[in-house]
Each structure stands twice: as structure tokens, then as C-alpha cells.
Specification:
26% strand, 6-stranded mixed beta sheet, binds adenosine-5'-triphosphate
Length: 234
């Protein structure tokens, strides 16, 4: 579904990713893990059209998208869930969710999807009229995920969903990610919390200073000595 080929992205003279290669097959959860500054967020920004790569290719269902606008990329079926704190504060939960569907015109289908989001995140229905700024970090993360789902993505990009959340919330959010995947959405997840990210991943890639240094199934990476030492405190 997604193929990233020899992707190099720069910020001025700083090279953030160095000829990265990886792919995501339809139906998978793929996790990219790595320390601070490894280049994970940069990869997501390049895929969603927020930062142009200098070289390399990003193919979505065989179509090169690295020069497409973010709007076009969303229309093709890729939606990014930013960290939970990037929800629209000063707007209600409902307004945030409606923003996720702003490129769609199919009103009755939008209503169905709103119901689907409330089924997955019942707390959001309870708080639909509440200003998003008043929600907890975990609830804001749910708003961010719900908003992305409102665009009916084929591929969901998740940026550090565990960031700043208490362990109980992390568990809940990751259960929901698995459920969304089981219901047919392909997921690319970037995380510093390697343990939770690899536990739910079909496959994973380890990034270090802008390069892929290791790959395998989630289970293989969890069991690997290098990953244990570098990311799991083992
Ligand atoms: P984190 O989890 O801390 O966000 P990351 O793995 O997502 O880390 P990136 O944010 O992609 O890493 O950063 C990769 C490299 O690019 C780092 O060396 C970082 O300092 C640099 N970088 C990121 N954003 C910018 C920017 N806007 N301007 C200059 N350098 C940047």
C-alpha cells in the first residue's frame, strides 16, 4: 500500500533522513521506533506532504505522492493523527470531529462515521459539546484519532500516540488502535515507547540518526538484543 524508497529529507543543511526504505502492506500495523531525533516525525511529515523530501519516492498504491499537496494526500486516503495536544482548542469535541470531514460532501455518510467514532470513543459523545481544551491528555488523543477517522482514511499515520499519557490511557489508546486496524484500516505508527508500539505491530523498523538499522516482525524486534538494550532497558 505504502512504499518509501531512498527517502532523504533535509532541514536546511541538516539531513534528517538518509535514504530510508520501508513499506506498509494493506491491513498491517507497522511501527517505526527510535530515540529522540532519529527522524521519525520527519518521515511522517514527508508522507503527509507537510515537508518536501529532497530525494527519493513515496508511493501510495503505486502512485508517487511526494509532490502532492496535503489536501490531495488526504483525499487519496492518508490521514495523520498528530500528537494529542494538536487538537483545535477553543472548539468543541463535535466541531473538531466535523473538521476531520471538511473535504467530504456526503452528509449522511458523515453522520454514520460520527456514530462510528462515538461507538469507538463513548467518552467523546458524552463530551461532544465541551471545549476540547478542557479534556484530559488521553481524551484529546481520542479527539485527534476520531478527527482523522472522519476523513475515512485507508492509511492512518499516528504520531507518538503514547506521548504524555498515563499507563492506563496508553493501554486504552493502543487497544483502540488495534480495533481500528481489525476493522480494516492500515496503520503506520511512530513511537518512542518501543514496547507498546512493537507489541501491537505486525512489523517494525528501527530508526537511528536518520537510517533504518533493523527490521522484523513486532515479536522479533521485541526479542532482539539490540532493541532490548537500546529501547527496552533490558
Ligand atoms: P522526536 O521524537 O524528538 O520528534 P524524531 O525521531 O521524530 O524525534 P525528527 O523530529 O524527525 O526526529 O528529527 C530528525 C532530525 O531533524 C533531528 O536531528 C532534528 O534536530 C532535525 N530537525 C527536525 N525538525 C527540524 C527543523 N524544523 N529544523 C531543523 N532541524 C530539524
Amino acid at each position: 500500500m505504502l512504499k518509501v524508497k531512498d527517502l532523504s529529507v533535509y532541514y536546511g543543511v541538516i539531513q534528517a533522513t538518509k535514504e530510508i526504505n520501508f513499506d506498509v502492506q494493506e491491513g498491517e500495523i507497522v511501527s517505526l521506533i527510535g530515540a529522540n531525533g532519529a527522524g521519525k516525525s520527519t518521515v511522517l511529515k514527508a508522507i503527509s506532504g507537510l515537508h518536501r523530501p529532497k530525494s527519493g519516492e513515496i508511493l501510495f498504491n503505486d502512485r508517487p505522492i511526494q509532490k502532492d499537496s496535503t489536501r490531495k494526500i488526504v483525499q487519496l486516503g492518508i490521514s495523520q493523527v498528530p500528537e494529542g495536544r494538536h487538537v483545535f482548542k477553543g472548539m468543541t469535541v463535535m466541531e473538531n470531529l466535523e473538521m476531520g470531514a471538511f473535504l467530504r460532501k456526503d452528509k449522511s455518510e458523515i453522520q454514520k462515521d460520527l456514530k462510528m467514532v462515538f461507538d469507538r470513543f463513548p467518552v467523546l459523545e458524552e463530551r461532544k459539546k465541551q471545549d476540547t481544551a478542557t479534556l484530559s491528555g488521553g481524551e484529546q488523543q481520542m479527539v485527534a484519532m476520531g478527527r482523522a477517522l472522519m476523513s475515512r482514511p485507508k492509511l492512518l499515520l499516528l504520531d507518538e500516540p503514547s506521548m504524555g499519557l498515563a499507563p492506563l490511557f496508553i493501554k486504552e489508546i493502543f487497544n483502540i488502535i488495534q480495533m481500528i486496524n481489525n476493522q480494516g484500516t492500515t496503520v503506520l505508527l511512530i513511537e518512542q515507547n518501543a514496547k507498546v508500539a512493537l507489541e501491537i505491530a505486525h512489523r517494525g523498523y528501527v530508526l537511528e540518526t536518520g537510517k533504518v538499522v533493523q527490521t522484523g516482525t513486532g515479536k522479533e524486534l521485541l526479542a532482539s538484543d539490540e532493541v532490548q538494550k537500546a529501547y527496552l532497558g533490558g
